[in-house]
Amino acid sequence: MRICIVGCGAVGSLFAANLAQLEDVEVWAFDAARDHVEAINANGLRLSGAGDVLGRLRATTDPGELPACDFGIVATKAMHTEAAIRATAHAFAGGSVATVQNGLGNEQVLAAHVERVMRGTTFPAGKIVGPGHVQWDVKGDTTLGPFEEQPAPFADVERLADACTRAGMPTHAVEDARGPQWRKVIFNAASNPIGALTGLTHGRVCERPDLRALVSGLVSEGKAVAAAQGIELDSDPEALIDHAAKPEVAYGHKASMLQDVEARRTTEIDYLNGGIVRFGREHGVPTPLNEAIWALVKGVEQSWQQ
Amino acid sequence: MTRVCVAGAGTIGSLFAAHLAQVAEVFVLTRREEHARALNEHGLTVTGRAELTAAVTAAADPAQLPEPDLVIVACKGADVEPLTQRLAGHFPAATLMTVQNGLGAEEIAGAHGSWPLLSAVTFMSGTRLSDTTVEYVLDTETWIGPYRDTTPDDARAVAALIASSGLKAEGFDDLRPAQWSKLIFNATVNAVAALTGLAHDPHFAETEQLSDLGHLVRDLVDEGKAVAAAAGVELWEDPWEMNVLATQRGHRHSPSMLEDVKAHRPTEVDLITGSLVREAHKAGVSVPLHTALYRLVKAKEASYS
Predict the structure, then answer these.
(1) So which residues of A are the catalytic ones?
(2) Residue B201: its chain A contacts at CB < 8 A?
């Protein structure tokens, strides 16, 4: 089985290095960062932290080098999906492609370029600490399912999930993967931008009752949009938010969007709150707070050009 | 010659004092002794929209200043209480004029003496360069109306005095329509600027894309209008039009709340957005977006430490 990781950043690297441990899987990675790719080819891809892994795989910045693959796992930031899949689609002409990205709408983008698509959500997280080296911060489950509009065969979903699970990345194949995805999106859309706009860590956001109420307002809108589509959340985002606020979990964690804003990197707001707003409009559900937060974070990005 | 005491020598106070000194006798009440000494020694210099240096008499103790006809309370909103407390028992023959953002400065000042009161709002802005130098940035108007034991003619007389000094001013029969227009404009533009880091520029009027900031600005203005309507105030100007006009000036104005946030200072959000949210509550109108922005700005202040 040949699997190509498209976008070998922190999350992509967790899949790539772990899958490379399997004898029956040949792993490729496509990424735009030349130093990262060269380090992987020279010394392998190293994970440390929650697990210590050294993966031997082929990495490239040149999509022309990619052979025909059975599976793609797309793990780029959401704003790079279109460019990444356009460049690599030829490798998946006979295969299935899964997204494990943040946000809403990635499946639609993939489906414009490849035939068989999987909707996916993943919770493991890490960060790149240097070329060829990723720190694995959090272990967690992944869920994969066929993308309703252009589904990968369920047998393919099961095959990929099985490979990931055997590689140490527990993955569930489900018929409807929307629940976990929306749970994660609602969680991220309600907590990430509040951290980004105020500069507060997750725990400090949650200990201000008025601010926590604003977070709940955002959650409620997201839940209403999910409900209007008949999506059943696999658990309550409110519980996740309170859980993450505990000192021993992520009290002092700066949301990734806050880290993006501090580094003046474009955020994923278009695919989080922006996604909730777009789906809300499609299904006639008002989302005024998500709209406001979306506009404010876009404003933050615009202020860097002033 | 009219005698004016400017109480509070920040940016706005300094602009009033230096200009009025061209047509009136001006005294300046400062908080710090050394500030008063510097003013007495060097006078007050304005650069930017106007270039002038004025001689003023300054003191940190009102007892050391002559009796004025008019006191302009020109400090930041949060300082009205301590400043007017210091004025208690002084200048019994003077009329007091407040020029703070938000609502309620008149009540706070009026509690410390039986002075006749004028109510004012100012749109002019500048940057304080030193104790004795201020840059005049936006040469926009000051609006004045009667408040307590004063008449529309009193308001117009003070507006005429200010206008004769080279600043822009207008007197009103009732300031509330203008004051509320400014409050809604300010609550909207200041909070959005403080949270995004954007100076007030054309982004605030853009409505092309779904995520454009103009939608949020318009929604915030609409919430404010609903509060004004419920409070029985007919607005003088449409705050949305004020926003569009201001962004077309070709000059990016940096609202004070943005400056405060950048400098990690407490903001005036309690006075500005807070006033609007309190009025909304009184009138039974729901303002979820202003409430959200209020909470975000308060949280941003908390992030300083």
Answers:
(1) 184
(2) 306
* Predicted structure pTM score: 0.87
What is the model's pLDDT at position A306? Answer: 81
Domain range summary for chain A, segments of one domain joined by +: 2-173, 178-303
For residue B75, the tally of other CB atoms under 10 A from its CB is 25
Task: Decide if A204 and B197 are in contact by the 8 Å CB cutoff.
Answer: no
Domain A2-173 has CATH 3.40.50.720: yes
Rounded CA-CA distance A270/A297 in Å is 9
- Other Cβ atoms less than 10 A from the Cβ of A232: the count is 11
Percent above pLDDT 90 for chain A: 93
Give the domain B3-173 fold.
Rossmann fold (3.40.50)
Nearest to B296 among A197, A204, A281 (CB): A197
Considering only the top CATH level, what class is B177-302?
A: mainly alpha
Nearest chain B CA: its distance from A87 CA (Å)? 28
Query: How many other C-beta atoms are found inside a 10 Å radius of the C-beta of residue B286?
Result: 12
According to DSSP, the β-strands at B117-122 and B95-98 are parallel
Is B35 an interface residue toward A (CB < 8 Å)? no
Question: Using one digit for the tens of pLDDT, what is the confidence trace for A123-164?
Answer: 998 889 999 999 998 899 999 999 999 999 999 999 999 999
Q: Are B300 and A197 an interchain contact pair (Cβ–Cβ within 8 Å)? A: yes
Q: Is there a contact between B195 and A197 if contact means CB atoms under 8 Å apart? A: yes
Domain ranges of chain B: 3-173, 177-302
Any idea of the CA torsion for A219, A223, A225, A228, to the nearest 10 degrees? -170
Which residues of chain A are within 8 Å of residue B195 when distances are taken between CB atoms? 197, 296, 299-300
Classify domain A178-303 at the CATH topology level.
N-(1-d-carboxylethyl)-l-norvaline Dehydrogenase; domain 2 (1.10.1040)
Report how many Cβ contacts below 8 Å link chain A to chain B. 94
- H helix count then E strand count, chain B: 11, 12
Q: Is the pLDDT of residue A105 over 90?
A: yes
Average pLDDT (A87-101) is 98
Q: Is B305 on the interface with A (CB under 8 A)?
A: no
CB contact under 8 A, B197 and A294: no
